[in-house]
Amino acid sequence: MIICTAGHVDHGKTTLVAALTGIDCDRTAEEKRRGITIELGFAPCRVSPDEVISIVDVPGHERLVSTMLSGAGGVEGVLLVVSAVSGPMPQTREHLAACAALGLSRGVVAMTFADRVESPELASLLLRESLLGTVLQDAEIVPVDARRGTGVESLRAALAALIEDSGALELSSRARSPFVLPIDRVFPVSGFGTVVTGSLIQGQLQVGDLVVLSPGTGAVSRVRGLHVHGTSVDSVGPGTRVAVNLSDLACQDVPRFALLSPPGALVCGKTFDAELKWLPHAAQVGRAFRTLSRSRGLTLHLHAGRAVAEVRADVEIQPGETATGRVRLDRPLPLVPGARFVLRGPPDAHFGGVLGGGRILDARPSSRRSAAAREALRYATPTQAIAQLILESDRRGIDDLELRLRLGQTPELQTEGKAPRRFAAGVVTAALRSLVEKVDAAHLAEPTEPGLLAASVEASPLMRLALELALSEGALIRRGLHLARPTHIPAAEEALDELSKRVLRSVGKAGLNALSDSEVMDRYGGREVPLNAALRWLERQGRIVRTGGFVFPARELQALREAVVVAVAAGQALDVLWLKTQASVSRKHAIPLLEWLDATGVTIRRGDVRLAGPKAGVGAPGVS
To answer: Which of 17, 90, 141, 331 is the most exposed place for a label (fewest CB within 10 A)?
Structure first.
């Protein structure tokens, strides 16, 4: 995992990193002379016997925000450093704004110089209040005195907890994408040649891989060696600080802040479609940037590169809102599909210059795409995005290499070692229709069977795309190894359907004073159809939720969820007594209901009470 420091100059970021790692990241003579961080620094921090976090130490001075942003791109967490004496300062707020624009919500707050205040507890409370409304409002605050070492081990433990929350599924998805390594240092090593360092933000990089620089001359190099924190390795995955020894390239041939990627894997362009986020504090800065509609006065920071941006939003974006639009740059940058960027305007004395940011939706969009099509792309699943680009291509068609350049990884269409496959709108529509007809024919020919074997259609990339479209649109469902229509119930499952109806009647009658698993088993166990199969059937249909050893009706949970959302949105802290009164249930039911609300993100536990969670008021009921 890679994290970056953040915070105002002179709040002790580099000293704190040295206390955590034993490494002084201020390595240049000018940094030593001036006593401030100017260049990015890097250090490994062991947080447990088996886990190491890579720390990127960034400058805190207002004139070095560009350098800070070049180090923050692609990291997974943040270590915010705030002085207990002076509290949050302009660069603290600007760095927090940059984190919000980059989608960084995991982090720890280190309150430095805690020994210099009369009451560290009061300073911590004031700091917590100042963080309200920011991405780190719920982050752990750790008082530290880096010079004496007080609180350093507590901070190390808090950083270790970030790894547990780092999202294995997200990391797995990034690992399947083509590798991308923004370069932040270039230097020669005697006997080895050119070495570059950076944070691998996606993909797998191996010794022997061919690489190109973007932007660059297009010259292809090869990876001669890889080192992670001084240790030679054969391959690295995303979220790793790595040094790469490149063959056949001199240091002067490597532009600073270029990207390493496989040949032909990235678009280096000046125009892209994006999701755009305008931050809440924009309402308090100059009139010219109070909202975002059409602007030519913004600087865009993308990984380690930057350019002057002309942004044309599809609607006028108010502070705190998100919409879509098209971005045009004054010079080409390597555009990584899905990458997040930062938008800065003229510096404000209180908030700094970061006003918003966004996410690349299409790295090489068609010239005539409508605002509605951009909005659809914003919410599209990978399969739906592929389908949209195919349909936009009309008769011309689009090949899978173009799809990967514009949208990123498309595993359904990988054709390693083969020529690119071309997909046209009419061909895909016909394949989708053919697939549904095959499933209907299977149901008609074998009404007692679950459906059509999925393996019979998954060999073809075209049919795989049609299958994913059918599943995303709800025309088909997976039933084990088979594909079926949602309304199809095999004759052999009629008894299962009947048992499910009986169970549902009992569960619904009990309401939130739910039957336990054992009570349901006593009533309906021992029948010809296994009870667990009936319960799974009802769960798939979204009719019940099983949690805490009880079986709850989903309709009742939805009503409870709505009541909880109203309460937490009003700032109310909920406890067991509140839920017992609200839902008219006993403690034995209140506890699993609260745990279900926590697990689904509606609430978050703080001691003995519940506050608003990340998904309060978002999405449908239901099943976690």
So the answer is: 331
| Of 327, 343, 377, the domain-final residue | 377
- Claim to verify: residue 145 and residue 201 sit in the same structural domain: no
Phi, psi at residue 209, to the nearest 5°? -65, 145
**Residues 99, 28 share a domain:** yes
Which one-letter DSSP state was computed for residue 424? -
Distance CA 567, CA 571 (A): 7
Main-chain dihedrals φ then ψ at residue 15, nearest 5 degrees: -65, -40
Please state, in angstroms and rounded to a whole number, the distance separating the CA atoms of residues 325 and 288. Answer: 18
Q: In a 3-state reduction of DSSP, which class is residue 558?
A: helix
Would you state the structure tokens that stand for residue 139, as one six-digit string?
Answer: 């982050």
Residues 151-156, mean pLDDT to the nearest whole number: 93
Side chain identity at residue 33, one-letter code:
R
Cis check for the bond before 215: say yes or no (omega within 30 of 0): yes
Instruction: Dig out the tokens for 332 from the structure.
Output: 């080409």
Residue whose entry in the numeric block shows the structure tokens 């039933």: 479
pLDDT in tens, 465-490: 888 888 878 899 988 888 999 887 76
For helices 382-393 and 461-473, give the axis angle rounded to 10 degrees. Answer: 110
Which tens digit of pLDDT belongs to each residue from 318-329? Answer: 999 999 999 999
- Burial label, 326 (beta-carbon count in 10 A; 0-12, 13-18, 19+): buried
Question: Contact, 355 vs 345, CB < 8 A?
Answer: yes
Q: What is the CA radius of gyration of the chain?
A: 27
Say yes or no to pLDDT of 624 above 80: no
This prediction has a pTM of 0.71
35 C-beta neighbours (distance < 10 Å), count: 10
